[in-house]
Amino acid sequence: MTTTDRSWRRGAVVYQIYPRSFADSDGDGVGDIPGITERVDYIADLGVDVVWLCPVYESPQVDNGYDISDYRSIHGEYGTLADWERLRDALHERDVRLVMDLVVNHTSDEHEWFRRSRREEGEYADYYHWVEGSPDERPNNWESMFGGPAWSYDDEREAWYLHLFDERMPDLNWPNPAVRESLYEMIEWWLERGIDGFRLDVINLLSKAEGYPEGDPTADPVGGEYFLTGPRIHEYVGELVDRAFAGRDVVTIGETFDVTPADAHRFVVEDGLDMVFPFEHMDIDAGGSGPWDVVDWELADLKAVTERWQTAVGEGWIGLYLTNHDQPRIVSRFGDEAYRRESATMLATYLFTLCGTPFVYQGQELGMTNPDFESLEQYRDPATVDRVQRALATGDIELFEEISEAVNYWSRDNARTPMQWSDDEHAGFTAGEPWIKVNDNYPEINAEREAADDESVLAYYRRLIRFRNEHPLAVYGAYEPLLADHSQVFAYRRTSDGDGDSDALVVLLNFADEVVSVEVPPDAASGDTELLIGNYEGGSDGLAEPVDLRPYEARVYRVSSDRT
Fold first, then answer.
1. Architecture of domain 476-560
2. Beta-sheet pairing, 159-162 with 151-154
3. Which one-letter DSSP state was computed for residue 456?
4. Where is each Glycosyl hydrolase family 13 catalytic domain found (predicted)?
5. Out of 67, 255, 271, 285, which one is annotated catalytic?
6. What distance lies between CA 304 and its chain's CA centroid?
């Protein structure tokens, strides 16, 4: 990527909060908005610029808030609108912006729009995707992202409705202008309350092919070719940006399943989103034989995906992440729990030295790991539970234990266990019974303990954020791969994009659990070198000689020369 846009949106570091699991203020076992407000100093001290708050709207909580029943109300378990306003003000007082999570692809089936739509009341009749027909024959073979058919029959309306996620989350009918107008009015309502932007959930699913044709049964998901970045998607996203966000100093972040770098370029440069999330790097350990298939990944896979996205997006922009509320913890997935601190900080260095906007998911800055769920009853994620129960019902598996290891690896609940604040009961998250299991390792891994250790993962994240703020090359420099064929070390250079700075950054990342010696190519190592940041004490400032990298060591050098 290359860019002349150096707005706060691109230079920011974003901290993602999953409110249900962050901090509980009232002892009911569920995180809430007042609990977040009590922790704003922790967030500000980390050094981040923006908080992305996952949904807190009124919701029956089928999918923990991504099923919205009232866009203009706060869910009672999370607090009130007054509580939300206090959080907004507390963040703004500390120069931290607040971004809301917004779902405009679907609503809850308890939303008033859907209730009126199933009764065919006036304009609401066409607010969702309805197809008349026999209750014994679905409109097509499309599958839900959560598994199973993407169509459910409604006895009241005597018609089928489309839901690309849970059956209680019907998809909005974006071809209907009245739907779009209602959404723009709602967005305006929130912007008037002083928020700083939106993360737009599954934004490239808004457009479905006219006529709902049959999907390729060999594709994953079935029907995806007709609703992933569908035929009118750029028309819809462009209009959304023009109508809701143009002329405002806010950020728009698109979650975009299965997009290519060319898609990302178009969403940002042509349609006007500020950035999108790529997903390709989240698939390097996914096999092709079902939702629980896990394959060993090679460093070459990560290198190839990284280079493709760093060089092919052009003037576009991406969000950088290795975990979020839908993905496993990065130490357990891409690192090594036996070298938790080392691999957590090495992966953080990777994240913060690429072109894009880094996103830190709560607990990532502590090096939190995946928990060990011992039974299906301990899971809370509907996508996990529904898929397993369906596999049991259809006879694909006879016992949960047959796939328990893979489910433990993939489940979204890995990232949703409570934030580990201290070694107090329930990790200091709640005085009550937590809504989901607390990771057993909280006495060793918690914010209180990490804050007291100058060499902790938390301390390193704080250093990294300061480093990124002080070195624009880490944000905007051009990406050049080094040691492309090395199987253990990921190395690259960030170089000037023509602004007169002749310095370069050289990044060395050891992905192995052993000492590895590397020689940096002479053209990348020539000049005065200085070690700017690393996750081990010590280390030479020189790159002219072979560099011995300790297990999961990360080093970032500045190389000053006359090259431009």
1. Sandwich (2.60)
2. antiparallel
3. S
4. 16-416
5. 255
6. 20
Give the amino acid at 223.
Answer: G
Tens-digit pLDDT profile for residues 189-224: 999 999 999 999 999 999 999 999 999 999 888 999
Determine the average pLDDT of the residues in 236-250. Answer: 97
Domain 112-162 annotated CATH 3.90.400.10: yes
Matching residue, tokens 């907004």: 88
Rg (CA), the chain: 24
Pairing assessment for the beta strands 57-58 and 50-53 based on DSSP bridges: unpaired
- Pick the catalytic residue from 201, 285, 413, 553: 201
For residues 141-170, average pLDDT = 97
Beta strands in 231-376 (DSSP E): 251-255, 275-277, 319-320, 357-361
User: Who contacts 156 (Cβ-Cβ below 8 Å, separation ≥6)?
Assistant: 118, 119
Strands (E), 278-404: 319-320, 357-361
| Residue 344: half-sphere exposure toward Cβ, Cα within 13 Å | 26
Alpha helix ranges (H) inside 417-528:
447-451, 457-470, 473-476, 522-525
The pLDDT, as a whole number, for residue 90 is 98
Closest among 553, 557, 559 to 489, alpha carbons compared:
553
Q: Fill in the amino acid letter for 346.
A: M
- Asked about 41 being catalytic, the answer comes back as no
Domain ranges of the chain: 13-106+177-460, 112-162, 476-560
- Residues 172, 290, 225, CA angle at the centre, nearest 5°? 40
Question: With a threshold of 0.85, does the pTM exceed it?
Answer: yes
Q: Is 527 left (phi over 0), alpha (psi -120 to 50) or beta?
A: left
User: Which of 268, 259, 215, 219 is CA-nearest to residue 241?
Assistant: 268
| Of 56-70, 156-170, 191-205, 281-295, minimum mean pLDDT range | 281-295
Q: Identify whether 101 is a catalytic site residue.
A: no
Ranges of H-type helices in 411-563: 447-451, 457-470, 473-476, 522-525
pLDDT of residue 501: 58
For 439, other C-beta atoms within 10 Å of its C-beta total 19
With a pLDDT cut of 90, the percent of the chain lying above it is: 89
How sure is the predictor about 180, in pLDDT bands with cuts at 50, 70 and 90?
very high
Q: Hey, what CATH class is 13-106+177-460 in?
A: alpha beta
Average pLDDT, the chain: 95
What are the pLDDT digits (tens) for 425-443?
999 999 999 999 999 999 9
CA distance linking residue 347 with residue 352, whole number of Å: 9
Tens-digit pLDDT profile for residues 107-120: 999 999 999 999 99
Strand-by-strand arrangement of the 528-534 sheet: 478-482, 489-495, 504-510, 554-560, 528-534
> What CA–CA distance (Å, rounded) separates 538 from 287?
40
